[in-house]
Amino acid sequence: MICYAVIDTNVLVSAMLSSKDDTATVQVVSRMLRGEIIPLYSNVIVQEYRKVLCRPKFGFAVELVNYLIAAVEKYGILVDPSSSGVALPDMKDVPFYEVVLEKRTEDAFLVTGNIKHFPNDPFIVTPRELLNILDQKTTK
User: Which residues contact 98 (CB under 8 A, 6 or more apart)?
Assistant: First the structure.
């Protein structure tokens, strides 16, 4: 089963920091790289990815950051979302929410480690919840 997902920056950071291959965030990124999850992104989201992933405190190799962003752009779908006018606790989350709203006619999710920063919508899920959704749809 293939699904579409806006991947919050915190999911990428968590995956890159993890030393375990079986964590939900690592599995989400792996499934994206295998084509099971089609990333949805905007130019603003890519800028956010680059800005955060290149922070010195993380110490991520520039080549790894470039590889991950290139994979999102190569295998994903660039979305130019309409303004929703929504106000979220962290306004930097608005671009992620607007991209998923733009693609809600499809099987699209926003996957984040910060559920509380978004409205209580069924399409806003944690990495583990997204994996469960994918696994349930694969067995049906």
Answer: 42, 81, 82, 83, 84, 86
